[in-house]
Amino acid sequence: MCSRTDGQRSDESKPPASTLAESSGTVGGVAGEPLSADQQTGVNRGKLLRMFLIFSLIVLFVLLAASVFRPMGTGKRYTEIQKAQLLRSAEEWIIQYDVINRKGSVTSYTIDVSVDGQPSSMTFSLPDGHSFPYIKRIRQDMLTDGIVKFAVHEGGNTDPVEETVYYLAPN
Known about the structure:
By secondary structure, this protein is α+β, with helices and mostly antiparallel strands. The chain has two domains: 54 residues, no CATH class; 90 residues, Immunoglobulins (Immunoglobulin-like), CATH 2.60.40. The chain has two helices and nine strands. The strands form three sheets. The protein has a four-stranded antiparallel β-sheet, with no helix packed on it. A three-stranded antiparallel β-sheet has the order 3-4-7, with no helix packed on it. The longest helix has 33 residues. The N and C termini lie far apart (119 Å).
């Protein structure tokens, strides 16, 4: 306790009331006054939004990291037929297919083509991850009905991996 020059005693350790209101962080402006229910709800809502934002960012980061370090895949081994093209020139039709082996091992394939009932066949082996471009040229004078059947069989399977029928216009 200290004495003042005007003869009154004061406690210097106790700040004035206005300083207490500012330093206590109360919204009401009076020291020790509790927050109202509306003010408390706003504070809680702000904390919840901040927690939700942080949680969302963590989930986003985990998903991005997982997609970079462990890409999703089917895990299945399969044969793929790509670039099925049918081209026409003045003298012939050209059918092109790319057979791609994604089976995980060397696989044998058979391609069966029938032009107006006249069959032809080709068998080949393809290492894993490699492709084989198959091109069939059909001259216009070979066509009568214009029905061309194309099928790719894997190994000794009777069910084709790819099967297509073309109806080509003969000259």
